[in-house]
């Protein structure tokens, strides 16, 4: 079967485009732009593999998404998330996950970043133990980004990736020693609107996983995994039934590839509030495929607000005050360490959002000090490794982990955290403390709009006000404004005593757009997608019913079908 696409030759961008086609299996339709490089990824066999996964698991995924909706209704009606009495035996019985493969025993510093060509090379060369290549929080899921990302990862796994920065006349290549590659596909909720299977959009994460696995498993296992792999990070799950689907996907992939069961390994991000009560259950489902859990702290904060959207007594203070020092955040990290070490796998720390500040040495040192403190807390608490957003942070973080872990590859056996067995549901749900300010509202507005403007133009992680911002951090800005508006909270931290209302927010949006214009300049504001972002973000903050995900809500704006046709999902 042939699927219609438009081939645009680089040299004839302005000329009439030649038509070309992806060769697709029965029932598959590609609606993204045709490109010769993409066609090497979107082969008939690879697409057949993705379609098989889609057909086998779509019913399970739909059911899991229905369960999420049901849980949301419960929470909105006043229920609190908690440990499930039905799975008490899983939490209380003694079992362990399959042993951690030697190739990834030491993960003390992991760098993360989008699947962009130059960044992949820089990350693999960065000196970190692991590079988490991201199709998720750090990537705007445009067709171009996703497909180029697959091309880049294939070249990276083959060891042939290079990049010529023409402006700087600099060629990027891999060093002899590189970080081990983990790949993070999108969450279960995101569709891929450029690939249709049997008349409906494919499940985004099955496209990301399926294409990457199909093209790379053999080479990866030979060159990087010491017979294991490929390795994955799995985001945004809410319940162990979602982990069971992943486990089944892995088993299906292993079977099709003819590789040993338990070859594929994954670390699950615990980054939703419901999932903190399911950590044992999630590990149990993935026990043959697990290499641990990770504290996805930014989405976790977002999820706290989302889960409690119907609870007027659980409002967040200013975003900058919700750090790992809050009781509910510390409890989550401690319980995650105890759970992982009891089950024999890594307990990974999270992302400090600071990045190097080039033009202000004092501010830079203050930021580095915050990162060191955060990482020191993590390693002393028992985490086996942690995340860095930027290569410039790696030496400082490595130093903290080296001086506390020495030559031990991890702390799985040495720090058991049995004290964390006492952590209760109340600890995990404890209300965050702190004040709310007009500046907090302004900052959320400024960050949310600028992030969305970048995302709409294909950039999924950006530096803003000396911090890394990505989909997870931007979500906090969005839902916090929504929550403050819904409950008309009083801004009690700046002595103004003003209540947050639509009128106030409208004024703040106007003033912050003016500020953004001053900061980025008239020209960039005009050329960029700031006005569209402002409209979308303002709507998302003021709708009566909270959108589940900023990225899902805005997705249609980045879908481009070729030849042009309706893109609405
Ligand atoms: C909540 C979560 O999910 S966290 C995980 C998801 N988020 C991320 O992965 C964010 C990753 N980080 C980034 O995207 C970037 O560091 C940003 C956007 C925060 C900052 O980017 P910039 O301001 O462009 O960085 P900066 O200009 O300082 O970059 C300097 C060099 O470091 C490289 N670099 C910066 N961050 C990274 C990274 N994460 N991985 C690899 N290389 C990087 C740049 O490519 C650049 O290389 P060059 O000197 O060869 O040109
Ligand atoms: O994915 C990580 C997070 O903090 O969110
Ligand atoms: Mg996240």
Automatic annotation (TrEMBL):
It is an enzyme of class 2 (transferase). One of its GO terms (biological process) is glyoxylate cycle. Its main location: other. The active site is at residues 184, 470. Pathway: Carbohydrate metabolism; glyoxylate cycle; (S)-malate from isocitrate: step 2/2. Its EC number is 2.3.3.9. Residues 26-88 form the Malate synthase N-terminal domain. Residues 180-429 form the Malate synthase TIM barrel domain. InterPro entries: Malate_synth_C_sf, Malate_synth_sf, Malate_synthA, Malate_synthase_CS, Malate_synthase_TIM, MS_C, MS_N, MS_N_TIM-barrel_dom. The keyword Transmembrane does not apply. Residues 436-558 form the Malate synthase C-terminal domain. Gene3D superfamilies: Malate synthase, domain 3 (3.20.20.360), Malate synthase, domain III (1.20.1220.12). One of its GO terms (molecular function) is malate synthase activity. The keyword Transferase applies. PANTHER family: MALATE SYNTHASE (PTHR42902), MALATE SYNTHASE 1-RELATED (PTHR42902:SF1). Belongs to the malate synthase family. This is Malate synthase. It comes from Lithospermum erythrorhizon.
């Amino acid at each position: 079967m042939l699927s219609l696409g438009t081939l645009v030759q680089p040299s004839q961008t302005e000329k009439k485009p030649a038509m070309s086609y992806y060769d697709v299996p029965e029932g598959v339709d590609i609606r993204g732009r045709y490109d010769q490089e993409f066609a090497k990824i979107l082969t008939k066999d690879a697409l057949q593999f993705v379609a098989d996964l889609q057909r086998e698991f779509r019913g399970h995924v739909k059911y899991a998404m229905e369960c999420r909706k049901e849980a949301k209704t419960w929470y909105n009606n006043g229920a609190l998330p908690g440990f499930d009495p039905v799975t008490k035996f899983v939490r209380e019985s003694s079992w362990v996950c399959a042993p951690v493969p030697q190739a990834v025993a030491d993960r003390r510093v992991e760098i993360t970043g989008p699947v962009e060509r130059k960044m992949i090379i820089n990350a693999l060369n960065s000196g970190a133990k692991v590079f988490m290549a991201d199709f998720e929080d750090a990537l705007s899921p445009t067709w171009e980004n996703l497909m180029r990302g697959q091309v880049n990862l294939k070249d990276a796994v083959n060891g042939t990736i290079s990049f010529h920065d023409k402006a700087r006349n600099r060629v990027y290549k891999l060093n002899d020693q590189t970080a081990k590659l983990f790949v993070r596909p999108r969450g279960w909720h995101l569709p891929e609107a450029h690939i249709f299977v049997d008349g409906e959009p494919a499940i985004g994460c099955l496209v990301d996983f399926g294409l990457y696995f199909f093209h790379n498993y053999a080479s990866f296992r030979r060159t990087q995994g010491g017979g294991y792999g490929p390795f994955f990070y799995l985001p945004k799950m809410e319940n162990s039934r979602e982990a069971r689907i992943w486990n089944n996907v892995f088993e299906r992939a292993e079977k099709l590839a003819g590789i040993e069961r338990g070859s594929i390994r994954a670390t699950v991000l615990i980054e939703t509030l419901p999932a903190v009560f399911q950590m044992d259950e999630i590990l149990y489902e993935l026990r043959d495929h697990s290499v641990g859990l990770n504290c996805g702290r930014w989405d976790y904060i977002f999820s706290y607000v989302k889960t409690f959207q119907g609870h007027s007594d659980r409002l967040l203070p200013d975003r900058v005050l919700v750090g790992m020092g809050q009781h509910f955040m510390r409890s989550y990290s401690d319980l995650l360490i105890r759970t992982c070490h009891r089950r024999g796998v890594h307990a990974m720390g999270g992302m400090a959002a600071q990045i190097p500040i080039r033009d202000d040495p004092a501010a830079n040192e203050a930021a580095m000090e915050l990162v060191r403190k955060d990482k020191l807390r993590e390693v002393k608490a028992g985490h086996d490794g942690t995340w860095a957003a930027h290569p410039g942070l790696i030496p400082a973080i490595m130093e903290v982990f080296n001086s506390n872990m020495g030559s031990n590859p991890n702390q799985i056996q040495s720090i058991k955290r049995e004290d964390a067995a006492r952590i209760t549901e109340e600890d995990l749900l404890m209300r965050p403390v702190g004040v709310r300010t007009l500046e907090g509202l302004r900052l959320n507005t400024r960050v949310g709009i600028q992030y969305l403007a970048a995302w709409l133009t294909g950039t999924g992680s950006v530096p803003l006000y000396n911090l890394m911002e990505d989909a997870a951090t931007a979500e906090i800005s969005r839902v916090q404004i929504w929550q403050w508006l819904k409950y008309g909270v009083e801004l009690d931290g700046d002595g103004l005593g003003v209540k947050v209302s639509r009128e106030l927010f409208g004024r703040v949006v106007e003033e912050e757009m003016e500020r953004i214009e001053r900061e980025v300049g008239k020209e960039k504001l005009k050329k960029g997608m700031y006005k569209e972002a402002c409209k979308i973000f303002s709507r998302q903050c003021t709708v009566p019913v909270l959108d589940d995900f900023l990225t899902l809500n805005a997705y249609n704006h980045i879908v481009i079908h070729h030849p042009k046709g309706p893109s609405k999902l």
